[in-house]
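Journal club prep — side note

Before the paper discussion, L.F. wants everyone to see what a predicted structure for a comparable chain looks like in token form. Sequence:
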Amino acid sequence: MKKFIQTVAQLLAAVALSLSLPSMAQTTMDHGKTSTAVTPGMTDGEIRKIDKENGKITIKHSEIKHMDMPPMSMVFNVKDMAMLDKVQAGQKIQFIVIQDAGKMVVTDIQPGK
């Protein structure tokens, strides 16, 4: 009888644990979804090259904080080709860049300060 009670107790403990695991897993999965997204802000930069044919712009930029990216020069895609008609190489700018479908895309360019 004692062995039967131990077996039932172990079975109940296993059932209780198995019932709690899905809720623990759900809590873990939802944790990332509840984090606050960082809003893209303006980043200082200087235009190095403009490629109107391919809709790309090379910018030497300061830290892009919302992407945790250090200062560097790199090529970006532009969201709107018309932005390239309003800027020139050597110009100081402020810009917003986002990640879109795996590409870094400039969504806004303003004259630098």
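L.F.'s comment for the group: Residues 1-35 form one domain. Keep this in mind when we get to the figures.
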